[in-house]
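User: quick one, fold this
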Amino acid sequence: MNVPPLPIQVPSDLQSGATSLRHAERNLELLESIEASGSISRAAKRIRLSYKNAWDCVDAMNNLSQAPLLDYSAESGTHLTEYGRRLLEAWHQLREAPPSAEPLEAGEIQRQLRALSLRTSARNQYRGRITHIERNAIEGCVTLDIGEGVTLQATLPGDSLEEMQLHEGTMAMALIKADFVMLSPDPAVRISARNRLHGKLLSLIPGAVRSEVKLRLSPGRTLTALVTNASVAELGLGTGQDCTALIKASHVIVAAE
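Assistant:
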């Protein structure tokens, strides 16, 4: 399907950040290569990425996207969805000749491109809509809907809510470091963490001291945890099994768009 041109302005923070531009370009180049080759493995070879790094990029982009970027089919292979093609088309226009006109739809695409360019030390990055805010004299608790039935809760100082202009209905980013994620095969384990995300263990890569564990929370959302090898053995973790990720609300960092 041909996607009509989508005029879009270059976000000022992307214009001024060469590192952000390179990061966004790598992500969009991978999407373009997947569309052309119909395969993530072939796309990774074309742009000289390892298969693992390609999948990590795809998972990271899906976590940040408001809609699925890829369509997987046993018959036709892997290709971009309509939303993925529109995002790619907007990026081409942004690089080549960004016009001054900006239609209403471009605002959301622009914010999506900005999210893809974000570089932080947090392995887990999500984009979502604030659905509820609870306040007391000291702090606030924000509930963020990151899509596909997955929500996160984060606590932050009350004055930060005002400074960042966070309100119900606004979009925001949630950042979670991988070593802040606790895992349990028991979904009913008693612990004070406010976030309980249930999923299936997708991959487990042992390291010298810690292992990288990736959970599939939903078709388009993944979560990465870093846990000690001793904990992996003690919990009996293995790919394919059900697992629950436990995250304290104070360990979820919220960034305003």
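User: anything notable?
Assistant: The longest strand covers residues 124-135.
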